[in-house]
Amino acid sequence: MKNRTYTGQWLSDWYSTFVRELRHIFSDSGVMVIFFLAGLAYPVLYGLIYMNGTVDDMPIAVVDRSGSSESRQFTRDLDATRELHVAYSCADMPQAEDLLQKRKVKGIVMIPEEYGDRLAEMRQATVSTYADMSSFLYYKNLTMGANQVMLKEMREIQSERFSAAGYTPEQVSRLIQPIRYEENMPYNRTFSYSIFFLSAVLLIVIQQTMFYGVSMLTGTMREENRSFAVLPDRFRGRGISRTVLGRGAAYWLIYMAIGTYVAAIVPRLFGLPQNCSFGSIFVLLLFYVSACVVFSFTFSSIIRRRETVFVLFLFMSPVCLFLTGFSWPVSSFPTFWKLFSYIFPSTFASQAFINMNTAGASLSMAAPQIVALTIQIAVYYLLSCIAVFVENHMLKSRTAQARQSISSGI
């Protein structure tokens, strides 16, 4: 009976803390904007910005100094690729450079004078390419388009030379391609930047908006001489766990809904790959959102002012994004940055989400990331409890000192 009474009291205290935190959240307009406007709008905004994930028919200028039939064929083949469109044929490089500076073209292909003669003499010929490096996609398109045409030209030249030497078509085919292969890129066939980028950034939004909202609320409380760690008198200092879990439940409930929208609905809106079941994504969210809650509690405890959040926004967001390894393999990270990335739940959750949603990995394949999130939950929960204990102890000490000062004055 005593145990049942304690359990009932614990649940009652937890529920009152949960309701109190919800009131704090919904009474702060800034937190509401971050949670519901930013949390719901950012994924759609990113999706709209990167909706056209590929750059097709990128305009380029060709400087054909050779004027041979081979160089004209090379130019036609460039124009026939999906990546490139020969918008200008220039007489010299200064004219092409002027077009590049005026942003009328995004790249230049220069075919030298001796191109046709070298091919006729069975010597190696060169073609020079110049890309607008204001965007990596321009460089990628020019490089891929030019390489495709060069490989095609090489096969045709080899075929002609072997045929002229008396080889049969079957022998020529074996010599040119001794091992047959098929190119297959199952996860991003069109090299779409939206698949490459959005799959990583979607889960970052969950962590960042939650952390900024919690930190803003914590900073506001401290500016108003309140605290996130105030324990009701009936707890008698033993209510730390129910305080943390009660507060956490409020954010967990809100962000499970936001997370489901971000991870399951937004990809469908923008045609991103969804190669795993909703159940698998939901299980990942259970661990990820829980880790984000206690992560936010731990690091928001050091926030003293509301405006500090906006400084952190500029610093943390790009760092967290690149630490997911979406643009650079994690195996190539320096040791410091690899260890530093373990601080953030988004590092593991984004990797698991990309593997599951894009590559069709199962939950068992994402087990290492889920185990890492579980460890983070345990560690950050303990740190959150310590933060509440320390903050509450400091509040009691300040209150006792203030009362003593008042008594001394009287």
TrEMBL record:
| Signal sequence coordinates | none
Q: Which GO terms describe its molecular function?
A: ABC-type transporter activity
Q: Which GO terms describe its cellular component?
A: plasma membrane
Residues that span the membrane, as ranges? 30-49, 191-214, 244-266, 278-297, 309-330, 370-390
Keyword tags: Cell membrane, Membrane, Transmembrane, Transmembrane helix
Q: What is its main location?
A: membrane
Q: Which domain of life is it from?
A: Bacteria
Is this entry keyworded Manganese? no
Task: Please give one Pfam family short name.
Answer: ABC2_membrane_3
Q: Output the InterPro entries linked to this UniProt entry.
A: ABC-2_transporter_component, ABC2_TM, MFS_trans_sf
Q: How does the protein's chain sit in the membrane according to the entry?
A: Multi-pass membrane protein
Q: Where in the cell is it found?
A: Cell membrane
Q: Does the keyword Transmembrane belong to this entry?
A: yes
This protein is called ABC transporter permease
> What is the scientific name of the source organism?
Candidatus Cryptobacteroides excrementipullorum
Taxonomic lineage from the root: Bacteria, Pseudomonadati, Bacteroidota, Bacteroidia, Bacteroidales
